[in-house]
Design goal:
The chain is mainly α. It has a single domain, classed as Four Helix Bundle (Hemerythrin (Met), subunit A), CATH 1.20.120. About 80% of the residues lie in helices and about 5% in strands. It is built from six helices and two strands. It has a two-stranded antiparallel ribbon with strand order 1-2. It is globular and about 40 Å long. About 10% of the residues have low confidence.
Amino acid sequence: MKKLFIATFAIVFIFTAICVHAQSAKDAVKSLKKVEAVASTNIFGRDFLPVYSEAKAEVDMYLESPQSNKKPALKKSIQQTALSYQWAASIWKLKMTKVPYIHSGDEYVKSLYRDFPAAKESLKGTIPLDEALGWLYGNASGELYKAAKLLYK
């Protein structure tokens, strides 16, 4: 009887652990979907930043889990989505200091280009911050769409 109890407990524990880790990818995508929803409403930084911060915690928990290595394509899409929103948060902070533009020659923008080589084609010269936000939101949405599809493959 004791062996049966231990065996049952072990099976339930392992199954629960598997479900919790599998759930964390779902939670990460769901939290990024919330950021996407807020971003799509053309909101203010004071609204975007708290939602982004909350999502970042969920995403970080997933990315740090061993489960994230089981689906590399999903992990990459979640990372890219989170990175786009991280940059958007940075741009919002600039906007709050009343900086209207960034310039493609600035080290800040060069760093953005390193993270997103495709941005070089769209974001050139003197770049209004709203244009940079639009590009980042679009990039995040594309990656998040991929992540949502990969979640159940």
